[in-house]
Amino acid sequence: MTRSVEDTVLIRGARLVGEPGSWTQGRVCDVLVVGSKIGRIEGDIEGTFDFVINADGMILMPGMVDTHLHLWESLFRGEMADSWGNDYFGSIPPYISYMSPEDVYISVYAGAIELLQNGVTSVMDYAHCARSPEHVDAVLAALDSAGIRAVLGYDLHKREHTRYDPRLISYSSRLSDLERLFSRVSSVPLISAAVCLSEFVPGDPESMTRAATEIDIARRLNAQAFFHNNYHGEITELALRNLLGPHLVAVHGNYDSDVELKLVADSGTWITTQPTTEMMSGRRSMTMITRGVRLGVKFSLGMDVPAVGKLGILNEMRSFYLLGRLQDGIAERSEGRVPVRRSEGVPAVNPAMALQVGTSYGAETIGLGGSVGEIRVGGDADLVLIDTRPFGEAPDTAAHIIMCAGYDDIDTVMVAGKVRKHERKLVGVDLQDLAARRSSALKHVREQRETSG
Ligand SMILES: [Zn+2]
Questions:
Q1: For domain 8-62+374-422, which CATH number applies: 3.90.1150.10, 1.10.760.10, 2.30.40.10, 3.40.50.460?
Q2: Within a 10 A sphere around the Cβ of 175, how many other Cβ atoms?
Q3: How far apart are the CA of 267 and the centre of ligand 1, in A?
Q4: pLDDT in tens, 230-247
């Protein structure tokens, strides 16, 4: 199914969830997609269209958004499913030194296709594989050919485990390569770029000044700035320097104190959290979810490490919801309030919130708010149809998605008006060919690593 951008697609009779302000029980109506945008949302739309999808018994929701993923690691799918503590750091990141740009291309492409298959239409790819300009270009080319909407994060941090190409060893060379990426993406549809900050240490003026400069660069480029927020005190130090705001995204945020979470909420800074990866490795508590929600923090979700398992945000939304419930239950019982009861702000997380965390908040986190993440006339047509017919529909639409839907129920996925999956099958993707290219790339990388000791 190849269509020009001016084509029309009618989605007939779906139940909508994710219209602005409507995140629970949605209305049933028709949605007309014209080119890359949503043209009309009405009870009954008559006419002749290029393609009609009968969506009776299906839920139409905004495409899901992954706001923190290292897609170059997709080649190592599932390799870290039994990772514990810091195992990951010695195992997966060192691979990058043995990957050619072609290996990176196939890894990013395969991961992006898996995301589309699972209803993720936008991704922030934190590309800490940028060890040569060609590796950066390979990420861009892979995202572009996969046809996913993406924000490509250029990593300014020089990583210890990585063998850099001589052209990117100096800090100034990475800064100019970042500028090069920004000018390249400006002509690539569906792709934008972001700045991933060098590591900074609270109390170290030199690294803090560098962080401030990099945040300024992101602002000048009208881009989001991301940093791995792994230490207590980072938010406080950024606040003291007046660097917090909606342009900044803290990744993880597990060690943020209540005072810091309040600073995050009041400044509109974003936190992206990674439930599967965090729970699996046992490294960090997730209490900032309920503490943060009660203080007004807006979270979004990411898979982080493809080496852990299935890419997609449906499971992350469910985990976010369940973790919130688990934490509130533990807190209530430890305070002796048994049996647990509802009270002001408890439980903190409900299905409608979890759904927004995986869609509209995600879009805002990566700088695409107002364009994707909601269903509205004039908005980009990044949409997902969930089939409820085989086993029935929950009374609350958000609750159906969070607790009843699985990846197998994703019938149709559309990005910028293009149907990428329909009747549960990817459109325009040769999975057999992809599998062959994946295994030969994986073989190449493993051999390189083994022979290099
Ligand atoms: Zn990460």
A1: 2.30.40.10
A2: 16
A3: 23
A4: 988 999 999 999 999 999
Per-domain residue ranges for the chain?
A: 8-62+374-422, 64-365
CA 362 to ligand 1 center in whole angstroms: 16
Residue 443 Cα to ligand 1 middle (Å): 25
pTM over 0.85: yes
Pair of tokens at residue 283: 């490294």
Do the beta carbons of residue 45 and residue 10 sit within 8 Å?
yes
Sequence-distant (6+) residues with CB within 8 A of 73 are: 92, 95, 107, 111, 305, 306, 307
225 C-alpha to center of ligand 1: Å?
Answer: 14
Output the CA 70–ligand 1 centroid distance in Å.
Answer: 7
User: In angstroms, rounded to a whole number, what is the distance separating the alpha carbons of residues 64 and 26?
Assistant: 17
64-365 classified as CATH 1.10.510.10? no
Collect residues with CB below 5 Å from ion ligand 1. 304
How far, in Å, from the CA of 128 to the mean position of ligand 1? Answer: 9
pLDDT at residue 6, as a whole number: 61
